[in-house]
């Protein structure tokens, strides 16, 4: 169930007590024109570098709604859907495409495809479009992030 928070950095720090470095992404995940934020704990990202990103959608009043986590590593495409929803499609190395529906009411995985790169002739730009990309992120040491989170 989504919950409203004032400071997503504090919430992430208090809930997850990150073990290693903390990664931060700023993007408009729900396509409402307001920049949102996502955090990931680098220690959870596995050998391929993909891991869970906890998404916080910013509301117009400056508060955030914590909606859940997506698996994400390489390419990402966000498209506006209807009724305040957006569709997030991610590619995980090894041939997995995951599609999510996101809104301030929550986040839900709606499709997971396993693609055999050798037999399906899979191409990133055909599936995700030419503007799909890896989102830039900032890396914080635990000490830096604890200060950012107010702890």
What does this structure look like?
This protein has a 6-stranded antiparallel sheet with strand order 1-5-4-3-2-10. Strands 6-7-8-9 form a 4-stranded antiparallel sheet, with no helix packed on it. The protein is globular. A hairpin with a 2-residue loop joins strand 8 (96-103) and strand 9 (106-114). The protein contains 3 helices and 10 strands, in the order E-H-E-E-E-E-E-E-E-E-H-E-H. It has one domain. The model has no long low-confidence stretch (mean pLDDT 82). 14% of the residues lie in helices and 43% in strands. With 151 residues, it is mostly beta strands.
Structure at a glance:
The protein is mostly beta strands and 151 residues long. Helix content is 14%, strand content 43%.
Key features?
4-stranded antiparallel beta sheet; 151 residues; mainly beta; globular; 10 strands; 6-stranded antiparallel beta sheet; 3 helices; single chain; 14% helix
Q: Can you lay out the helices and strands and say which pair or pack?
A:
Elements: E1 3-5, H1 8-16, E2 22-27, E3 36-41, E4 51-58, E5 64-72, E6 76-80, E7 86-92, E8 96-103, E9 106-114, H2 124-128, E10 137-140, H3 142-148
Antiparallel strand pairs: 1-5, 2-3, 2-10, 3-4, 4-5, 6-7, 7-8, 8-9
């Amino acid at each position: 169930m989504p919950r409203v928070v004032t400071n997503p950095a504090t919430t992430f720090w208090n809930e997850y007590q990150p073990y290693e470095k903390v990664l931060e992404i700023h993007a408009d995940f729900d396509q409402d024109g307001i920049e949102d934020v996502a955090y990931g704990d680098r220690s959870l990202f596995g050998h391929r570098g993909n891991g869970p990103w906890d998404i916080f959608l910013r509301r117009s009043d400056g508060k955030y709604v914590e909606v859940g986590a997506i698996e994400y590593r390489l390419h990402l495409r966000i498209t506006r859907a209807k009724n305040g929803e957006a569709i997030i499609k991610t590619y995980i190395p090894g041939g997995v495409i995951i599609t999510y529906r996101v809104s301030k009411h929550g986040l839900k995985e709606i499709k997971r495809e396993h693609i055999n790169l050798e037999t399906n002739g899979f191409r990133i730009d055909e599936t995700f479009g030419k503007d799909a990309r890896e989102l830039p992120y900032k890396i914080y040491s635990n000490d830096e992030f604890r200060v950012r989170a107010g702890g």
